[in-house]
TrEMBL record:
This is Uncharacterized protein. Signal peptide: none annotated. Residues 269-281 have a biased composition (Acidic residues). Keywords: Membrane, Transmembrane, Transmembrane helix. The keyword Transmembrane helix applies. The chain crosses the membrane at residues 39-62, 74-97, 118-137, 143-163, 184-206, 212-232. Residues 256-281 are annotated as: Disordered.
């Protein structure tokens, strides 16, 4: 990975303009319509890797004779998320960032974080520990805790993967930057939650159709395929492209192609050279 995509943490800290979430979503959706193919390919690789990992874990549980009760299952799921999913998310974020910069990603861009995943795994462990504390709290506190953690850690993996910050620095840096622009990040996650919820409602309706005979089964299966297509080719790319757009704006990441484009990117704050020096949080 070349350093030109890292950007400047100092610029992110000093960025005082309000992030325009509407412009960010418009730009992200434009990329979804026009440039999503490499990202969708990376999503497919992620699905294959996770499927293989889950099969391997299930086989190990059976061979070792471990009783997969609720607590053991939770530990196994968290381990898969930290060790396998985290490098995939880093790769997806990097592919999304290159896409928003109009630089064509390749397969190596997605897989590069598997060769040195330790910063990403480290920050994923930190975020998982803090997030899982919510399950130990009363329900009235747990739900706000989990929501806040999900929002505050939005930039943790991107900072560990793209900016190459150390785990604790990425953890703290994400909290600092998201807190500073909390309204924007809240709206990002709220909009995506609503979109995923609508798909969930569609899945419930289709499941009812599937129980109404052969015709209903056909409608349910066909509808399920359509919903899966929407999730993996529209919603997931939209979410990652929106996060990449925010990273690009905050960290002042540019490329020659993106600078020549006059309408594909949301406006960014103009700064002088004194505010673009790079230092790590």
């Amino acid at each position: 990975m070349t350093e030109k995509y890292q950007g400047s943490y100092q610029h992110a800290v000093q960025f005082k303009e309000k992030l325009d979430i509407n412009a960010i979503f418009r730009s992200a959706y434009k990329h979804v319509k026009e440039r999503r193919s490499p990202f969708v390919g990376s999503v497919a690789w992620t699905a294959v890797i996770l499927f293989a990992a889950l099969i391997l874990v299930a086989a190990l549980v059976r061979v070792l004779g471990i009783e997969a009760d609720g607590s053991v299952q939770a530990i196994l799921n968290t381990s898969v998320q930290v060790l396998i999913l985290a490098p995939c998310v880093g790769g997806l974020t990097y592919v999304a960032l290159k896409t928003t910069l109009l630089d064509k990603p390749n397969r190596e861009d997605f897989f590069q974080f598997f060769s040195n995943p330790w910063s990403i795994i480290g920050v994923s462990i930190l975020t998982a520990i803090v997030s899982n504390v919510g399950f130990l709290l009363p329900h009235m506190i747990a739900i706000p805790w989990l929501i806040a953690a999900h929002i505050l850690f939005t930039l943790a993996v991107p900072m560990a993967a793209i900016y190459r910050a150390k785990p604790f620095a990425a953890f703290i840096g994400s909290i600092q930057l998201v807190t500073k622009h909390f309204g924007t990040f809240f709206m990002l996650h709220f909009v995506m939650f609503v979109l995923y919820l609508l798909v969930g409602f569609g899945a419930v309706i289709l499941s009812n159709f599937a129980q109404a005979g052969q015709v209903g089964m056909f409608v349910g299966v066909a509808g399920g395929v359509v919903l899966a297509y929407i999730i993996f080719t529209r919603l997931v790319p939209l979410q990652f492209f929106a996060i990449a757009e925010i990273y690009r704006i905050l960290f002042n990441v540019t490329s020659e192609k993106s600078e020549m484009s006059d309408d594909s990117q949301p406006p960014t704050e103009e700064t002088d050279e004194s505010t673009s020096e790079d230092f790590r949080p």
